[in-house]
Write a structure and sequence with these properties.
6% strand, alpha+beta, two-stranded antiparallel sheet
Length: 339
């Protein structure tokens, strides 16, 4: 998710097109891009508001990479210099020593094209951005970082299921993950209606798929579930109203509502979600489609912890592994960000 001053007011006034990740160096076990996996060397920068960044939060926690890959959380509200470390003391990241994520981008390439986006992984010794490739980061955490996974970490990208996972993720990305943005930032009626219809057409297909199986692919949580979850958990809070994806609410679809609650109640998912950050970011930053910057009071969050009964479908959330332990001190979601 990119941010920046002038771009915020432009949303809704021109056709939406997601930027490709400009910095796509990979951090690998063999260091073939010159960026070897190394505990403590890198810092993951996220916004808890951003669905793309939230993928990496979930994967990092499920895999137990907290000690190996440190975490920086930016303010959900950007100014004209984009993502800020104003949640930290003196408005400066305590590890990188910078006030704005753009400083890490500038150290990598001065005058780069495109916006400053999260998730981003920064090389701590040099202070340079390594990658903002949101599509690849979590796949590499699951595969290239395996030597640093916790004991009992799940296999989020099992080799035998990768073709099916990739196929499902491609459909989810096009119609759901990115589809809600195309609807929300549409600049004319025809563009909006096509995008919105595509979102709900895909959601109906996903609901049919999930009616008889607990998870999207196989009988365990995979990367495909992470990518769908981060959109669905935001659906009623921001996409239904703010992005006009309002044919129905998540809570009105029994299968998808139960599926999302199941994941939310699974350690590693709901304990990374901050509804306060989510709502304030979308409604206060996207001034092109919400010029008053008023943040709605709803929706009611009390149902997120209600029984879902998805365990009746079988499945083993972590496969042969185990749930992650308690949230690392200092990384807890503040109380007002929880149901």
């Amino acid at each position: 998710m990119s941010g920046g001053g002038e771009g915020n007011s432009a949303y809704g006034h021109k056709a939406f097109k997601r930027s490709r990740s400009h910095f796509a160096d990979r951090i690998t076990a063999d260091g073939r891009d010159g960026r070897p996996v190394e505990a403590g060397r890198y810092r993951l920068v996220v916004s808890r508001a951003c669905p793309w960044a939230s993928r990496s939060l979930v994967a990092r926690r499920l895999l137990g990479l907290e000690d190996a890959l440190s975490l920086a959380v930016v303010d959900p509200i950007q100014d004209d210099r984009s993502w800020r470390f104003t949640l930290d003391a003196d408005g400066r990241d305590p590890v990188l020593g910078i006030r704005f994520l753009s400083e890490a981008y500038d150290r990598r390439e001065t005058g780069y094209p495109g916006g400053v986006s999260v998730p981003a992984i920064v090389d701590v010794p040099s202070g340079e951005l390594v990658t903002n490739d949101f599509q690849q980061i979590t796949l590499d955490l699951a595969t290239e970082w395996s030597a640093l996974h916790r004991p009992g970490a799940p296999d989020l990208y099992p080799r035998a299921l990768r073709d099916e996972i990739d196929s499902v993720m491609a459909e989810v990305y096009e119609d759901v993950n990115n589809g809600v943005y195309r609807a929300g930032f549409a600049s004319d009626q025809e563009e909006y209606e096509a995008a919105c219809a595509g979102v709900f057409r895909r959601l109906e297909l996903l609901a049919s798929r999930l009616a008889g199986q607990r998870y999207l692919v196989g009988d365990t949580i995979t990367e495909a579930d992470i990518r769908l979850f981060t959109t669905l958990v935001r659906f009623d809070a921001v996409y239904h109203g703010h992005f006009k994806c309002n044919l129905w609410k998540l809570t009105e679809n029994p299968v998808l509502w139960a599926y999302t609650r199941d994941l939310y109640q699974t350690p590693g998912f709901g304990d990374t979600v901050d509804f306060d950050h989510i709502k304030r970011h979308y409604y206060q930053v996207h001034t092109g489609i919400n010029p008053t910057r008023i943040v709605p009071l709803g929706p009611d969050l009390s149902g997120w912890l209600s029984p879902h009964h998805r365990e009746e479908l079988g499945g083993r959330p972590f496969g042969d592994g185990t749930p992650p332990g308690p949230v690392r001190p200092g990384e807890e979601v503040p109380p007002r960000g929880r149901p």
